[in-house]
Automatic annotation (TrEMBL):
This is Transcription factor NikR nickel binding C-terminal domain-containing protein. It comes from the Bacteria. The lineage of its organism: Bacteria, Bacillati, Bacillota, Clostridia, Peptostreptococcales. Pfam families: TM1266-like. It comes from Thermotalea metallivorans.
Amino acid sequence: MDPLSVMSIRVDHRADAAPKVQEILTKHGDMIIGRFGIHDPGEVNHGLITLNLRGDMEKIRHMMEQLEGLEGIKVNHMQA
């Protein structure tokens, strides 16, 4: 069984980036076992998505590369 891990995604310019981020997350939805998203009330254009993942590291790296290829996206990952 693949290990559990956590990914955080900071989204700047939410109105522009959110649809593209959503498309990537949907494409890799089979690895996502939990998702929590918030926006910064003080900064309307910024948001944070936290994902709980169970997946092969190669697939996770692929998803990270796709996300990081988007303007205004910063990704961190931690394996449990």
